[in-house]
């Protein structure tokens, strides 16, 4: 066992729902003690600001550029994370000086995975080109360190890409430690956030991890555009709809599903206009089925059938999605 550290993790995912704060004690390998956890939801104004930042980031070529709403969003995001840390420590009676490190994920506003991707030429021809990868997360690590007086690790996805990785998903090492004491092998841990990803842990603790396809993002965006609500609560609206097989087939024909892992996705990788003409319930049923089908399709890349599936993330609360995954 290596040195144990008390680490405070801060996550703001592609669902744009808020900041999750969690304390763990770990050696970074196999030792894991879970401490308190607390969510800090964003208000509607903050979600709108982050959505605008994502829109303003779509054409970025320089990960350090901050056009449009990005600088305002980055500063507001950092301030809210600092406030969340302070509130968390006070609520749970944790002395600031007992925290060894803060892991600050920041907010992903753009993720172009390394590897082949479709490029549209000026004449309209679509070709496959080798993309170098560009991943952009908002968050001022230095300012958060100054505000909290705790060392901060940040820009982790960019560091992973520079080291030859995909920049996503980031959770496999944690997942492996989490299931270390379970008798079942292989195990698949599915995280359904804005994007769905999986960590496959084999019989000898060998790992495979990749983004499986859409998670909640398409569903959430469709609900918000139609009703102003942040998500389909419990999958109740999707449960009233009918899946449109032709549209589901069109979604599943996307070139991403033919790529071999490791691979990763941006939250906006799939075209929401395919369901734009449908009534809301049918659109949500089809998008929910798309997420479930993508998760099921990912089994083809696993070396063995998992003995145990563990589903986490916000998507686990969508009963319609969970039923479709089970089917």
Task: Outline the structure in words.
With 327 residues, the chain is of the alpha/beta class. Helices cover 32% and strands 26% of the residues. It contains 10 helices and 12 strands. The strands form 3 sheets. Strands 1, 2, 3, 4, 7 and 8 form a 6-stranded mixed sheet that branches. A 4-stranded mixed sheet has the order 11-10-9-12, with helices on both faces. A two-stranded antiparallel ribbon has the order 5-6. The longest helix has 22 residues. The protein is globular and about 55 Å long. The protein starts with a strand and ends with a helix.
State which percent range the strand residues make up.
25-35%
Main beta sheet, described? 6 strands, mixed
The helicity comes to: 25-40%
- The geometry reads as globular
The SS-based structural class is alpha/beta
Taken in chain order, the helices and strands follow as EEEHHEEEEHEHHEEEHHHHEH
- Please report the distance between the alpha carbons of the first and last residues: 41 Å
Number of helices: 10
Tell me which oligomeric state these chains represent: single chain
Question: What value does the average pLDDT take?
Answer: 92
Our Rg estimate from Cα atoms comes to: 20 Å
Task: Name a few traits of the molecule.
327 residues, alpha/beta, six-stranded mixed beta sheet, four-stranded mixed beta sheet, 10 helices, 12 strands, globular
């Amino acid at each position: 066992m290596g040195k144990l550290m008390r680490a405070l993790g801060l996550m703001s995912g592609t669902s744009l729902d808020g900041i999750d704060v969690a304390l763990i004690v770990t050696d970074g390998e196999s030792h894991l003690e879970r401490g308190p956890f607390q969510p800090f939801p964003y208000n509607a104004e903050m979600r709108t600001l982050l959505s605008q930042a994502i829109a303003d980031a779509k054409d970025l070529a320089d990960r350090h550029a901050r056009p449009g709403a990005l600088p305002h969003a980055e500063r507001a995001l950092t301030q809210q994370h600092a406030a969340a840390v302070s509130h968390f420590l006070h609520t749970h009676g944790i002395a600031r000086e007992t925290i060894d490190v803060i892991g600050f994920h920041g907010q992903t506003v753009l993720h172009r995975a390394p590897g082949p991707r479709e490029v549209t030429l000026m004449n309209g021809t679509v070709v496959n080109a080798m993309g170098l990868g560009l991943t952009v997360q908002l968050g001022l690590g230095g300012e958060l360190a100054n505000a909290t007086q705790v060392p901060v690790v940040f820009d982790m996805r960019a560091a992973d890409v520079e080291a030859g990785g995909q920049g996503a998903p980031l959770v496999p090492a944690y997942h492996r430690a989490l299931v270390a004491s379970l008798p079942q092998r292989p195990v698949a841990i599915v995280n359904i956030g804005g994007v769905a990803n999986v960590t496959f842990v084999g019989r000898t603790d060998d790992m495979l991890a990749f983004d499986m396809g859409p998670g909640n993002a398409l569903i959430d965006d469709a609900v918000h555009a139609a009703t102003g609500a942040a998500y389909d609560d419990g999958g109740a609206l999707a449960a009233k709809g009918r899946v449109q097989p032709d549209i589901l087939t069109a979604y599943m024909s996307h070139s991403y599903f033919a790529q071999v892992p490791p691979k990763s996705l941006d939250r906006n990788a799939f075209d929401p206009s395919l369901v734009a003409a449908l009534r809301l319930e049918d659109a949500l049923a089809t998008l929910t089925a798309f997420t479930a089908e993508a998760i099921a399709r990912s089994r083809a890349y696993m070396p063995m059938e998992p003995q145990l599936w563990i589903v986490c993330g916000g998507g686990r609360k969508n009963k319609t999605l969970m039923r479709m995954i089970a089917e």
